[in-house]
Amino acid sequence: MAFNQLTCSVDGAVATIRLNRPSRMNALTQVLENELRAAVEQADADPAVGAIILTGEGRAFCAGMDMEELEVLPPDDIRRQDWMRPYDMNRRADYQTRYSYFPATGKPIISAINGATAGLGLVMALYSDFRLASESAVFATAFAKRGLIAEHGIAWILPRIVGHANAIDLLLTSRKIDAAEALAMGLVSRVLAPDELLPAAHALATALATEVSPRSVRIMKRQIWDAPFCDLGAAIADANREMYDSIQSEDFKEGVAHFLERRPARFTGK
């Protein structure tokens, strides 16, 4: 598929999606929003891809919704039916909405946050499985300074990542924080020099795609994202069901074999 406002490339088992509106700090438009979802779904469906990197071109990761587009956005845009996808019975409904679909993707998504990240850009980063940041990255929720509210589930996910006190601070003040503060509150897991960010993200993605079972990754990602919706008993029951299936899987047999034979794994995801 050809894209106009992003680029998508595959190197080895890693797909890299790069938001490509650097003159607008990669701010979202309806075109870019649609292209991003298509690119993620395309990478998820590609059997050669084991992990996905999301980053931005130029000095920003994503500065949120493009203000020129936001200025003329009709109030009923948020309710438009054409943003909705057909319901997938195999995926939790919570993760099928307009921006929350990253967790429903079977492959891990790594946000390589290379610069300014605000509003919907922050929402996308929060729904990713990993967040690595450049030392030059800056973060802000931005909503309160635009007269908006905590959009697209950020009031649910942000406290789970940074804690209640930090979430209240970031949302109500809309203040900017640098990469060091983001690391201290757990918003990102690593901070790297700008020229080390993408190599580190690619190394992580490659390890996820080649050194561990894609079947295990897919199921554990689903377990982690489903966990907030169930109690401990339900989580244990789910784990027991998955364990029964996993010990009969080809990847389990390979996991034992490559360890005993002291050779690199050849997982198939089955």
Protein architecture, described:
- With 270 residues, the protein is of the alpha/beta class.
- It has 2 domains: 6-209, 2-enoyl-CoA Hydratase, Chain A, domain 1 (Alpha-Beta Complex), CATH 3.90.226; 212-261, no CATH class.
- Helices cover 41% and strands 16% of the residues.
- The chain is built from 10 helices and 10 strands.
- The protein has helices at 30-45, 67-71, 120-126, 154-162, 164-173, 179-184, 194-210, 214-226, 232-246, 250-261, and strands spanning 6-11, 14-19, 51-56, 60-62, 109-113, 116-118, 130-134, 138-140, 177-178, 190-192.
- The strands form 2 sheets. It has a 6-stranded mixed β-sheet, with helices on both faces. The protein has a 4-stranded mixed β-sheet with strand order 4-6-8-9.
- Helix 1 links the parallel strand 2 and strand 3.
- The longest helix is centred in the C-terminal third of the chain and has 17 residues, at 194-210.
- It is globular.
- The two termini are 27 Å apart.
- The mean pLDDT is 90.
CATH superfamily placement of the largest domain: 2-enoyl-CoA Hydratase, Chain A, domain 1
The average pLDDT score comes to 90
- Class computed from helices, strands and strand pairing: alpha/beta
Strand order within the widest beta sheet = 1-2-3-5-7-10
Task: Please give the share of residues in helix.
Answer: 40-55%
Number of strands: 10
Distance between the termini: 27 Å
The CATH architecture of the largest domain can be given as Alpha-Beta Complex
Radius of gyration: 19 Å
CATH top level assignment of the largest domain? Alpha Beta
Return the CATH topology of the largest domain: 2-enoyl-CoA Hydratase, Chain A, domain 1
Shape verdict:
globular
What is the succession of H and E elements? EEHEEHEEHEEHHEHEHHHH
Low-pLDDT segments: none
Q: What is the helix tally?
A: 10
Total domains: 2
Residue share in β-strands: 15-25%
Q: Tell me about the biggest sheet?
A: 6 strands, mixed
